[in-house]
Amino acid sequence: MQLTDFFQFHAPTKIVYGPGLARDLEAELNDLKARRIFVITDSHVQQMDFYQATIDGINRTGARVVGVFSDVPANSGLKTVKQGSALGAELKADSILAIGGGSVIDTAKGVNAEMSLAGDLMTDFCGTHTMPHPLNPLIVIPTTAGTGSEVTLVAVIMNEEEKTKMAFVDRYLVPNLAVLDPEVTLSMPPYLTASTGMDAMAHAVEAYLGVDASPYSDALALQAMVMIRDNIVRACQDGQNIKARGNMLVAGNLAGVAFSHSMVGVGHGMAHSCGGLCGVPHGVANHILLPYAMRYNLDACEDRLGVLARLFFIKGTGLTGRELAEKAIDAIFELQRELAGVAGMPVRLSQVGVKEEDLPDIATATLSDGTCIYNPREVVFEEVLQSLKEAF
Amino acid sequence: MAVFENSDVLEKILGGFFRLLSDTPEVADKLIKAKLVIKFHYTEPDLTLTVDCSGDKVEISANDDTKKPTVEMFMKAEIAHKFWYGKVNLTAALARRQMTAKGPIPKIMALLPAIKPAYAMYPKYLDENGFEKYNIHK
Fold it and tell me: Is pLDDT of A337 > 80?
């Protein structure tokens, strides 16, 4: 393979996996010297059976939960971060435990930055690698299988005033510990299972096609795609299938490590913009837009898309490289249709509250999304608008 | 050894280049549209250059603490020099922290298409303004 001039691989998060593990974290908490733990979660997670068992488990160790902040909405914003960090500081917490999906985890990253660095997230730390020193320990129990945020150096947080999703990129944002317990994902309904799973698929595909892809990110991205391919429909159909749930949780994690290194591209740029301007949930937007993003990059990634086609059991016999690449895109469309059937997933932007007159603004916002520099083809307004129209 | 001998030389070269860009409608018009104030912090040698695109024309000032920047970029002068040659892989430079950006990343990204013509202009500018010895192609 053609190697890029530079790549690096640094995955400092300790990852532990096991059904029921969230209830017994004593060994891991001792390692981190976390004693006064501030829990960040959302009100839905708080109602789930495993939640109290997790809190009780912590309080049986030398550590204790000093407080809980559960006011994290979907697409959390800077105001929520500010509320969380004020409470965490008041409680004199020395560490944070995030229990939830992407919005909770990214909020926890923002709260941890403000608490550890005594600054304002937006004013002092917006950008890339602006944080002067390591943060307090951050432990994450993801309750969805897709975000990957439990292992990434990125936090995406809404600026409510500008209706823009802000990206914070810093090596110190990477959580210290990711607890992958498939039991906590058992109650996810099919719709959420599908949308978060396709978010992970989008991470893996875009990490594999991106300009900063390396043999390291490739290995993780391809394995993630295989595990999602084999388990996403099963996990939607049979939510109690612990094997499928475990596979999806690990796949989301692998895809997270992959895209934390090679980043994502125009598909995520469009998805962020749909989220920021029209409130489309991130996983749903990625689910709808992924095949269009792949098509956008077809000219630049024919060979790599061909690899993905084979991964979806398409034989290349008698096909040109381009035809094989197009089959990979077809395979994602086919998966979309399957998930529409088993989980009621929408397949068009018009089904999720986007109006046709919104498309030019979404295209404009996409062009200034941070992901665009990692896309294998130049991100151009007219072509993005065309992709959005096709997805509409 | 640093590419530029001192801050005065750096100001003459990079400040002069920014002034050239501000007089180039193909670049300046797009910068003005962005309505940003960008502050570049250089080290080895130390210098800050503020590119103010918030008004009707692009204004360049050195070591100016009166203007509040929208975005700030931090890098060694040598990295900036190579960047304007198109010889810095931006994604790698960000990953290796050779460049750091403070402020809303989307606004920084939006500028990249605007400055595209600048890469070809830089070596020509060096040659035509008595800075040939800094032209790494020579």
Answer: yes
Q: Environment class of residue A282 by beta-carbon count within 10 Å: exposed (0-12), middle (13-18) or buried (19+)?
A: buried
Comparing CA positions, the residue from B28, B13, B32 lying closest to residue B115 is B28
- Report how many Cβ contacts below 8 Å link chain A to chain B: 68
A374 touches chain B (CB under 8 A): yes
Contact A169 B105 (CB under 8 A): yes
CA distance A126 to chain B (A): 5
Phi-psi region of A137 (alpha: psi -120 to 50; beta: other; left: phi over 0): beta
d(CA A110, CA A159): 12
> CA distances (Å), B41 to each of A253, B51, B79, in order?
37, 11, 12
Residue A376: what are its φ and ψ, rounded to 5°? -70, -15
What the block records as the tokens of A74 is 């979907």
* Spatial contact of B52 and B61, defined as CB atoms under 8 Å apart: yes
Model confidence pLDDT, tens digit, residues A251-287: 999 999 999 999 999 999 999 999 989 999 999 999 9
